[in-house]
């Protein structure tokens, strides 16, 4: 069984790409794009009863992955192509959680011929869509406004007030402000809190530049249309999500050509932690 603490691929342009592998190397591969700030270390327990080969890459500027100045969402698909080629993987599934969702959709546009299933879990949607931030927690909404209109402020603000590397436990606490009762209950689990604190700290161990750049990237126009994504998409979302509100999820589901959506009453942002077994089954069946 695979469980690597971290591996590094040197990309063609010379950048380092960090990633980790979990599960059964002979099983169906699923690439997991975690939320923002991301790292190769799991945000939630990744074990399942079904055999699966999980590959968790770090986006530019996080963990072991070098920063890429001026990167676009679609640039991520090129990095993923190099990674799966390096690992000898021809076809695979992808799942994007929260801030990882737009990156998964970018792969669904650029790598559709190699992706069997694409999953979106509690995914960020386009901020320019009507009502996109309706139901979003106040601090998240304020951060999105800064990202869209004054992105140069994000890096010093994150360094001073939202820096996981300096205070990972405090970041986890701030992260959940305004979240649903279901989410707050889940973060009461010491295993979940510990995993998240460790992963967020690793994501920003070399600074918050990648974090700030990605938040700005997610809140601005993505550079492609959801109608262009040719993959079969499975979408899971909580009705009480205060980070990526249900309005975002409904817009994404309605805009994708082939999408099956499942919405969970009474659940918030941490759908991946509660339904991981079901998500993996959907992506490997």
Walk me through the structure:
- The protein is built from ten helices and nine strands.
- The protein has a single domain, classed as Rossmann fold (3-Layer(aba) Sandwich), CATH 3.40.50.
- The radius of gyration is 17 Å and the shape is globular.
- Strands 1, 2, 3, 4, 5, 6, 7, 8 and 9 form a nine-stranded mixed beta sheet that branches.
- A hairpin with a 5-residue loop joins strand 2 and strand 3.
- Helix 3 crosses helix 8 and helix 5 packs across helix 7.
- Helix content is 37%, strand content 17%.
- With 285 residues, it is an alpha/beta fold.
Question: Keywords, please?
Answer:
single chain, 285 residues, alpha/beta, Rossmann fold, nine-stranded mixed β-sheet, 9 strands
Task: Provide a compact summary of the structure.
This protein is an alpha/beta fold and 285 residues long. It has ten helices and nine strands.
Helix/strand layout:
Layout lengths: L1 E2 L3 E4 L5 E8 L5 E5 L19 E5 L17 H12 L5 E6 L3 H10 L4 E7 L16 H12 L4 H8 L6 H8 L5 H7 L2 H14 L5 H11 L13 E6 L7 H10 L3 E6 L6 H14 L1
Parallel strand pairs: 4-5, 4-6, 6-7, 7-8, 8-9
Antiparallel strand pairs: 1-3, 2-3, 3-5
Measured between the Cα atoms of the first and last residue, the distance is 20 Å
Per DSSP E runs of 2 or more residues, the count of β-strands stands at 9
How can the largest sheet be summarized? Answer: 9 strands, mixed
Q: What spatial form do the alpha-carbon principal axes imply?
A: globular
Order of helices and strands: EEEEEHEHEHHHHHHEHEH
Radius of gyration: 17 Å
Note the total helix count: 10
Annotated CATH architecture: 3-Layer(aba) Sandwich
Q: Whole-number average pLDDT?
A: 94
What is the count of distinct domains?
Answer: 1
The CATH class: Alpha Beta
Kindly report the name of the CATH homologous superfamily. Alpha/Beta hydrolase fold, catalytic domain
Structural class: alpha/beta
Proportion of residues in helical segments: 25-40%
